[in-house]
Amino acid sequence: MLTFEPITADQTYAIRHMVLWPNEPIEYCMLAEDHAAFHFGGYVDQKLVSVASLFPDGPDKVRLRKFAIVPEMQKQGLGSKMLQEMQAFLSMSDFSTMWCDARLDAADFYLKNGFTTYRDIFHKNGVAYVKAEYKVPAQSDLS
Question: What do you get for the CA distance between the two ends of the chain, in Å?
């Protein structure tokens, strides 16, 4: 059974480390801003298998960072469901935009999930990225 719930920053670190930066010390996956973020966990049969964090970025934006799914659960739709949970969170909040630096190899995933991606490729720590942005649909867009 698949469930989602808010979690703490501490609960994100093991999966962040394993999936995103396994060759770095775990401290590399910890952010000074973690205390101010909204953290989400995805559970399968009560086991934490995915994490993502939304960091406030101005009055109406949040930045999606450290989105990770354990390898054995990837490519099964869990990431899309997790994004839908965060999009629902946005629609019930004062935030209207979610953005991220998307790894280039994940750009199509974000496009399929309602994001706009931008063509300018940039690199961080040897990894290629593009900007991706999701805007909460206006109420008039939903009818």
Answer: 32
Q: Residues near 74 by Cβ (< 8 Å), separated by ≥ 6?
A: none
CA distances from 125 to 21, 61, 122 (A): 10, 25, 10
Position 137 scores a pLDDT of 85
Answer for the pair 21, 14: CB distance below 8 angstroms, yes or no: no
Whether 141 shows a pLDDT value over 80: the answer reads no
- Whether the CB-CB separation of 115 and 134 falls below 8 Å is answered with yes
3 state SS of 58: coil
User: What's the CA gap between 50 and 41, in Å, rounded?
Assistant: 6
